Amino acid sequence: MSEKSPKVTDPVCGMTVDPAKAAARVEHEGRTYYFCSKYCAATFSATPENYASTVMS
Ligand SMILES: [Zn+2]
After folding, report:
1. DSSP symbol at 3
2. Ramachandran region of residue 25, left (φ > 0), alpha (ψ -120 to 50) or beta?
3. How many angstroms does the Cα of residue 29 sit away from the middle of ligand 1?
4. Any idea where the domains of the chain sit in the sequence?
5. pLDDT > 70: what percent of the chain?
6. How many whole angstroms from 43 Cα to the centroid of ligand 1?
7. CA–CA dist 52, 2 (Å, integer)
8. Separation of CA 24 and ligand 1 centre (Å)
9. Ligand 1: centre distance to CA 30 (Å)
10. 52 CB contacts (<8 Å, ≥6 apart)?
11. Whole-model pTM above 0.85?
């Protein structure tokens, strides 16, 4: 059994997000981050350095 769509974590609120269904995505330093909402994406975009390091996979 393998997961078809690996989940990612919304770095702002910590929610688990399905990349295929993410409400928003932001590219930062070569990585793509997924968000549960545009609000979280906007928060991330404002200060990505506050969040980018929290997601390691
Ligand atoms: Zn979120």
Report:
1. -
2. beta
3. 20
4. 8-48
5. 82
6. 9
7. 27
8. 9
9. 20
10. 11, 28, 29, 31, 33
11. no
- Cβ contact 52:9 at 8 Å: no
40 SS3 class: helix
User: Which tops the pLDDT comparison, 2 or 19?
Assistant: 19
> What does DSSP assign to residue 16?
E
- Cβ atoms of 18 and 7 closer than 8 Å: yes
- Measured in residues, the chain has a length of 57
**H-type alpha helices, the chain:** 38-46
- The residues whose Cβ lies within 5 A of ligand 1, an ion, are 10, 12-13, 15, 36, 40
* C-alpha 54 to ligand 1 mean position (Å): 14
